[in-house]
Design brief:
Two copies of one chain form a homodimer. The first copy, chain A, has five helices and no strands. By secondary structure, chain A is an all-alpha fold. The first copy, chain A, has a single domain, classed as Multidrug-efflux Transporter Regulator, Chain: A, Domain 2 (Orthogonal Bundle). The radius of gyration of chain A is 23 Å and the shape is elongated. Chain B binds a DNA duplex (30 and 30 nucleotides) through helix 2.
Chain lengths: 125, 125
DNA sequence: ACTTGACTTGGAGTAGGGTCCAGGTGTTGA
DNA sequence: TCAACACCTGGACCCTACTCCAAGTCAAGT
């Protein structure tokens, strides 16, 4: 698969795909003899994973480290697990903050509804 | 209250508080005769609100607009409500993405646990 | 063989959201 | 009244995460 095809498939720009590979957020992608990227299923799975993690706000730093550990082989299984656990807890913390904001927004929206209803019940002027 | 006190109270740097006011994310804060910020309860409530919204990832743009509408008075009640509804739905969308990532992380962590357990069950070498 | 269009790299530029600093003013205690 | 310190403003700088560009190469059709 060319970069353009992968770009369409995952909704990430070709620039972003190249950028991700350059910084090590994706392992090196296979190339044709001429040096052109030729994404295989494994590459696509990495892309899908990273897209998912990034869309949830997981830091690029952490993902780069995960890829680096992965590339070092089986001796890093424990470290990778720890890294994921750490990211998981950060994710949960952020979701809790968002939940608090959501409740607050709901509350405010309700109050606005009430205020608007009250205003409309009054004679104008 | 001085900016330092408010900074400590909410865990936002004095620079950030000044920045927020400058860009209109906070309404103008009362000043002493000498021009020094003297935060009152209303200011603090705004700060608390903005801290909450920002920590949930609500865009500064949207919050600035909310403050601007607020300062225009009662005629903007409807617009403010709409703005909050829009932010609420964005928040929910982001939380859904995070939930998906969380499940994926949990899954991966479990697999690592299994892989590590299997490896330890083998004789080394 | 040549055009056309997608692909390559390295590096510069951008947007969002702060953070830091210099040079100056206000405030307080000795 | 003066030292010491907090506060002020405007503007430069920083970080993250892309995004764009120039100059060059590869590939497919004619």
């Amino acid at each position: 698969m060319t970069i353009t095809e992968v770009s369409r498939r995952y909704g990430l720009s070709a620039d972003t795909l190249r950028y991700y590979e350059r910084i090590g957020l994706l392992p090196p992608v296979p190339r044709t003899a001429g040096g052109i990227r030729d994404y295989d299923e494994t590459s696509c799975q990495w892309i899908e994973l990273m897209k998912c993690m990034r869309s949830a706000g997981v830091q690029i730093e952490a993902l780069i480290e995960y890829v680096a550990l992965f590339r070092q082989g089986d001796t890093t299984l424990g470290a990778r697990k720890q890294l994921l656990i750490e990211q998981r807890s950060q994710l949960i913390a952020r979701m809790a903050e968002m939940q608090a904001s959501l409740e607050r927004l709901d509350d405010k929206i309700q109050r606005y509804e009430q205020m608007i209803a009250e205003k409309e019940a009054l004679p104008q002027g």
